[in-house]
Amino acid sequence: MLEINQPVLVFGATGQQGGAVTSALLNDGWRVRALVRNRHADKALALQRAGVELVQGDLKDPQSIRDAMHRVYGVFSVQPSSGQGAMYGVSDEDEVRYGIQVADIALESGVQHLVYSSTDAITDTPTGMGHFDSKARIEKHVRALPISSTIVRPAAFMEMLLMPGFGLDQGVFNFFMQPEQAMQLLALADLGHIVAAIFADREHFSGKTFAVASDNVTGKDIETVFSEAAGRQISYSRFDGDVLASNAFLAKLTDLLDTGVLSGTANLDELRNIHPRLQTFRSWLEGNGKSAFIEALGTAGVWGYGHN
Fold first, then answer.
1. How far apart are the C-alpha atoms of 82 and 304, rounded to whole Å?
2. Domains of the chain (ranges plus CATH)?
3. Residue 89: which residues within 8 A CB-CB, separation 6 or more?
4. What is the Rg, in whole angstroms, of the alpha carbon atoms belonging to the chain?
5. Fewer CB within a 10 Å sphere, N or C end of the chain?
């Protein structure tokens, strides 16, 4: 592997995407560096125990980003988004500013390969969803820079299906698709493996933008797999009209699925050439997702991902 003696800086290493990328890079023998707000937080200490070099800093502090990028080979760039909910306190403009800043400092620092994680919900025209359109603006900036870069566009994560509020604790599951309608989903671990493969082959992946998913499933597929895993019937249906009428955020996402924007555009065969052990929804639920699924079956709550 080329340049493996130089580290890869991972943003969001204590979170979902960055955590998956960190794990895959470490597994492949890379040195990994992480920018963390608090070096003494439990998640940061867990990274350190796994062999990750910690640099304390913040996206609001450009100098800390420069310090973290000193003599790194690559950068995995992902930013908090308004779509992740109010607890992050990040606006769409914040996300754009942070994403552009990371890319600019990567260029300034002589980073050899930048991987930016966007979303597969991007079209030639704005979607009207700020946390999707913000990523399109960052993508445009990254492409214009004279730096070796790759843009990955993840599909909806399988892990999202196990959040409270979808009805699993009541023996049902409500989501965006009609029962026979298909949507691509992505296992977080697969994103990590694919990003690690990108860093290992800069020449092949430089300048490319591609969607990333693990499987293509319908609402009925989810019903079947969830029912088998639970050992009892889990009935699937799309969010009902009252829910969509009262939640503009969910209604807009549902509309984007119906118009094809959220259906997914990943070429699964090509992705299997990059990562042959791409997980199906069923294999993910039997493995990485099993414990979270069992917990979700007994956890009530309100769906809190995103806002209007």
1. 12
2. 8-158+184-214+264-279 (3.40.50.720)
3. none
4. 19
5. C
Helices (H) and strands (E) in the chain, counts: 13, 12
**Whole-angstrom distance, CA of residue 59 vs CA of residue 179:** 41
| Residues 26, 32 contacting (CB under 8 angstroms) | yes
Q: Is the pLDDT of residue 84 over 60?
A: no
Q: At what angle do helices 219-230 and 290-297 cross, to 10 degrees?
A: 80
Residues 6+ apart with CB under 8 A from 220: 179, 180, 236
Could you give the strand order of the β-sheet that contains 182-186, starting from the edge strand earlier in sequence? 156-157, 182-186, 215-218
Phi-psi region of 248 (alpha: psi -120 to 50; beta: other; left: phi over 0): alpha
Q: What is the per-residue pLDDT across 23-42, written as a single tens digit (0 to 9) for each? A: 999 999 999 999 999 999 99
Question: Which two three-digit tokens encode residue 277?
Answer: 């052990």
**Tokens 């403009």, residue?**
93
- Alpha-carbon span 155 to 25, nearest angstrom: 21
